[in-house]
Amino acid sequence: MIYRITHTLKYLTGLDYAGRNFAVFPDDTMVVSYPRSGNTWTRFLIANLLHPSKDVSFLNIESLIPDTTTISSLRLKRIPRPRVIKTHEYFDHRYPKVVYIVRDPRDVVLSCHNFQRKYRQIPDAYPLEQYVDDFLVGRSTERAWGTWGENVGSWLSSRSGHPSFLLVRFEDMLQHPHEELKRLGDFLGVPATLEILEQVIRRSSADSMRELEKKQQDQWVGARKHRKDIPFVGSARAGGWKAKLPERGVAKIEAAWGHLMLALGYDLVTTAAAPDRRQVLPQTAALAR
After folding, report:
1. Residue numbers in the chain where pLDDT is lower than 50
2. Mind listing the domains of the chain with CATH numbers?
3. Which residues contact 6 (CB under 8 A, 6 or more apart)?
4. Phi and psi for 165 in degrees, rounded to 5?
5. What integer pLDDT is reported at residue 274 of this predicted model?
6. Beta-sheet strands, E only, within 50-207
7. pLDDT at res. 230
8. Beta strands 98-102; 165-169: pairing state
9. Cα–Cα dist 107/84, whole Å
10. DSSP SS3 for 60
């Protein structure tokens, strides 16, 4: 009863976390992804692109590109417009403009495993194969966000090919950072010279972000109350699952979401059956690189 009263009061006063229930404005741009898919890196890239004269860091990223899981509805409403907002929500028809970041789920599960160890949500010895089972049914993250397949599928099936929707693959950002950042800039209406692109990429590099995290982890809301021996900023690599993910775990993920993975350009390595990529999300298949 006390919890419900407190929750209601926070909601009525706008002091509750924004989450899914916040006021969306017509000039908003949402940076959306399933957790651990490169959203924080993309936030830094966009923040450095939009604010080239600022020293973007973990201490001001929440005001430049706020995260709906760490900011109140009231504070979010006060962010100067036009706003760029980070979220992990599944499809929401209210979002007028969306940058959707997707990452190979075989790498996502490894990153989620480390993240939950950092936040002391699972012990270090939690078996990775058992964790894959949690991941497949949505127990590895906030359940309101759905599973990787539900979250990704909800956006691709609803918005793929729409001019207000930009699909960005984490792996493409790693391999072709200048090209992908230019796409982001053009989508946001911020054309950039090669010099600016190189500056943004340098300031937003994994090494730079890890250094900032070390210096600011006791003040940043995303790290100050959590383990310091496991970094928030990961390895920023693609394909780590090939060496670290148990074969049975790979097979389970591919069996569950092989059709989506193929449509997004992720090759399967097991004999898990998956529909022909041409029969599933044809618009998305055309975007896969």
Report:
1. 1-14, 273, 277-280, 282-283, 285-286, 288-289
2. 16-287 (3.40.50.300)
3. none
4. -130, 125
5. 54
6. 84-87, 98-102, 165-169
7. 64
8. parallel
9. 26
10. coil
In this predicted structure, what is the pLDDT of residue 118? 76
Nearest to 108 by CA among 167, 45, 181, 171: 171
- Are 156 and 90 in contact by the 8 Å Cβ rule? The answer is no
Q: What are phi and psi of 169, to 5 degrees?
A: -90, 135
For helices 148-159 and 247-263, give the axis angle rounded to 10 degrees. 10
Give the single-character DSSP code of 81. Answer: S
Amino acid making up residue 8? T
* Spatial distance between the Cα atoms of 267 and 256, rounded to a whole number of angstroms: 14
* Beta strands across the sheet bearing 98-102: 84-87, 29-33, 98-102, 165-169
Cα–Cα distance, 264 to 137 (Å, whole number): 21
165 and 102 Cβ atoms separated by less than 8 Å: no
pLDDT of residue 289: 47
Q: What is the pLDDT of residue 282?
A: 46
Q: Which residues have C-beta within 8 Å of that of residue 253, sequence separation ≥ 6?
A: 105, 106, 109, 132, 135, 136
Q: What is the pLDDT of residue 278?
A: 44
**Which residue in this structure is represented by tokens 């529909």?**
275
The C-alpha atoms of residue 9 and residue 225 are separated, in whole angstroms, by 26
C-alpha distances in Å from residue 215, one per residue of 184, 210, 225:
28, 9, 15
* Per-residue pLDDT at 229: 63
On the CB side of 21, how many CA atoms lie within 13 Å of its CA? 8
